Amino acid sequence: MAQTMLLTSNTVVSGHPLLQSLRPKPFSHLLLPPSLVNASSTSPARTYTSPVALFKAKTKAPAKKAAPKEKIKVEDGIFGTSGGIGFTKQNELFVGRVAMIGFAASLLGEGLTGKGILQQLNLETGIPIYEAEPLLLFFILFTLLGAIGALGDRGPLFGFTKSNELFVGRLAQLGIAFSLIGEIITGKGALAQLNIETGIPISDIEPLVLFNVAFFFVAALNPGTGKFVTDDEED
Fold first, then answer.
1. Which residues contact 156 (CB under 8 A, 6 or more apart)?
2. Which residues are listed as membrane-spanning (predicted)?
3. CB 113 within 8 A of CB 120
4. Is residue 28 domain-resident?
């Protein structure tokens, strides 16, 4: 009984329960001063502080969207193209329309007057090709390069589309180039080279010739619908 009272008095004086006095002291009690150790042990409630991040995660900047490429618009109309400078489909379409009108007008003029394109312009014909006017040879070469070295195009086979209009324009360019070469050498126009009667009224002209004239005029004056098919649009 006396031992129990002694133990109880010791624990009350020291202010610590018996079990806590027997437990080994933590390492923090050796480093901290006694006042802080007693304050932390006698406080009935424990306070918790929220952790503070020393290094904040870097926020990724939103990815910049690439600006869409401006597409070259092809305006409607006979000369309403906006292809700029260079060998583009828009410029080729413009040259093809001019060639269709020129070829149709030359065929109609030869059928009525009996003179080819060069004779209608009072240019010398029936001479070797190397004696022709340099400007005329340049025009022939330019027309051949525009028609033969053209850019590839895709689209439906039939219909008034821009790809088909481009194809007909190339045919007109080739027709003008070869008719000029033939007229320079032989002195005969495109129809005379094919042994078609010329210098007659329009009502007596061959129906096939009139059909070709009307076809080229309609193809040139009626702008094609739709747009060119390119690899960029498919991707």
1. 163, 164
2. 134-152
3. yes
4. no
Instruction: Name the DSSP letter for residue 129.
Output: G
Residue whose pair of structure tokens reads 């009224």 in the numeric block: 201
Q: Domain for residue 25, yes or no?
A: no
- 55 Cβ partners below 8 Å, 6+ apart? none
pTM score, whole prediction: 0.53
For residue 97, pLDDT over 60 is answered with: yes
d(CA 119, CA 114): 9
What six digits make up the tokens of 92? 């080729």
Burial label for 172, CB within 10 Å (0-12, 13-18, 19+), is buried
Structural domain total, the chain: 1
98, pLDDT greater than 50:
yes
Residues in a beta bridge with 161? 225
- In a domain, residue 200? The reply is yes
Q: Report CA 198 to chain centroid distance, whole Å.
A: 48
| For range 157-177, the mean pLDDT | 74
In angstroms, the CA 182 to CA 165 distance is 26
Is residue 128, in this structure, part of any structural domain at all?
yes
Residue whose C-alpha is closest to residue 182's, from 102, 119, 111, 99: 119
Local confidence band at 145 (pLDDT 50, 70, 90 cut-offs)? confident
**Contact, 184 vs 127, CB < 8 A?**
yes
Range of the domain at 206: 89-228
